[in-house]
Write a structure and sequence with these properties.
- This protein folds into two domains: 148 residues, Quinone Oxidoreductase, Chain A, domain 1; 140 residues, Rossmann fold (3-Layer(aba) Sandwich).
- The chain has nine helices and 16 strands.
- Strands 3, 5, 6, 7, 8, 15 and 16 form a seven-stranded mixed sheet that branches.
- Strand 12, helix 6 and strand 13 form a beta-alpha-beta unit.
- The chain is globular.
- It starts with a strand and ends with a strand.
Length: 330
């Protein structure tokens, strides 16, 4: 089979697109004929060696996938050949990745793809959708009527946060860096969109939420926690899921005197049952057309190295070349 893989961590150019043996199923695994995969920032960290996990050699890159069940291993009970499925959490913690024509995946990490949802959309929503769900509902415990702020509402995670918060009846405020992205956030349902290229974020937030926000979801790699905590309401919650190398100032006084909480999480630490619960809601919202993926580009699997370059330019260098996810197809 064709696959995008590395022999050892390195730059995007270290990715090889070539032939590898088709995976052999183990007990409890499902062989998926891959229809689409999606690139995430964490994929570039693993490929570049920033995360020190022991990787199989060769290591197929990628976390997300969507496709069709080709075969099932001994002991599998949830799927049969011909079923359409999607999933994430591969290529992590030493597991083999998904950027190949076939992937062997433990059935606990796979979910049925709703009728009418394409492999492209299912792959694009996978990691970012589960991340948004875990942070909003398991950790921040967002409730109807509360106010949420998220940086970058047009991005992969940000767009899911905006949509899910609106689905459950929260008031949503976000930022966007261009008029096009402002309009997209409004289409997603955001109540307040701050064009940070021409408006002062803090001043607009003070006017729009004078009592503060209940949940502040931080997506920036270099977060300003003094600003974030300054905008939290009484018993507000701060969600951190980015900024691997950041060491910002943390203002303790205004944080604890308002009974605030902070949670940091990485979705790949969540056990399968918690991700399954998130996937059930995601599937229902996809089927009801209440949730949709933000796809910026569709490329061929053979272009994985270029896709990683584009993702790094956007994530590390804020190039602005992406307004959503990169999806690749075999």
């Amino acid at each position: 089979m064709k696959a995008a893989y590395i022999q050892q961590p390195g730059p995007p150019e270290s990715i090889v697109y070539g032939d590898l043996p088709e995976p052999v199923l183990k007990a409890g695994q499902v062989l998926v004929r891959v229809g689409a995969v999606a690139v995430n920032p964490v994929d570039t960290y693993i490929r570049g060696g920033a995360i020190g996990w022991d990787l199989p050699k060769p290591f197929i890159v990628g976390c997300d996938l969507a496709g069709t069940v080709e075969a099932v291993g001994p002991g599998t009970t949830r799927f049969k050949p011909g079923d359409r499925v999607w999933g994430s959490n591969q290529g992590l913690l030493g597991r083999q990745g998904t950027f190949a024509e076939y992937a062997a995946v433990d059935e606990a990490w796979l979910y049925p793809t709703p009728a009418g949802v394409s492999d492209r959309d299912a792959a694009a929503i996978a990691l970012v959708g589960i991340t948004a769900h875990l942070g909003l509902f398991r950790d921040a415990r967002l409730r109807r009527g509360e106010t949420l702020f998220v940086h970058g509402g047009s991005g992969g995670v940000g767009s899911c946060v905006v949509q899910m918060a609106k689905i459950i009846g929260a008031r949503v405020m976000t930022t966007a860096g261009s008029d096009e992205k402002v309009e997209y956030c409004r289409q997603l349902g955001a109540d307040v969109v701050i064009p940070y290229h021409r408006e002062d974020e803090s001043e607009t937030l003070r006017q729009a939420a004078p009592k503060g926000v209940d949940v502040w979801w931080e997506t920036l790699r270099e977060p300003n926690l003094e600003r974030a905590i300054g905008h939290l309401a009484l018993r507000g919650r701060l969600v951190l899921m980015a900024g691997r190398d950041a060491k910002p100032v943390f203002p303790i006084g205004p944080f604890y005197t308002r009974d605030c909480q902070v949670v940091g999480f990485a979705m790949f630490n969540a056990p399968a049952d918690q991700q399954q619960k998130a996937a059930e809601d995601i599937n229902r919202w996809l089927a009801e057309s209440k949730l949709r993926a933000r796809i910026s580009r569709v490329m061929k699997l053979s272009e994985t190295a270029e896709a990683h370059r584009l993702q790094e330019q956007s994530t590390l260098h804020r190039s602005g070349v992406l307004a959503g996810k990169i999806v690749l197809e075999p």
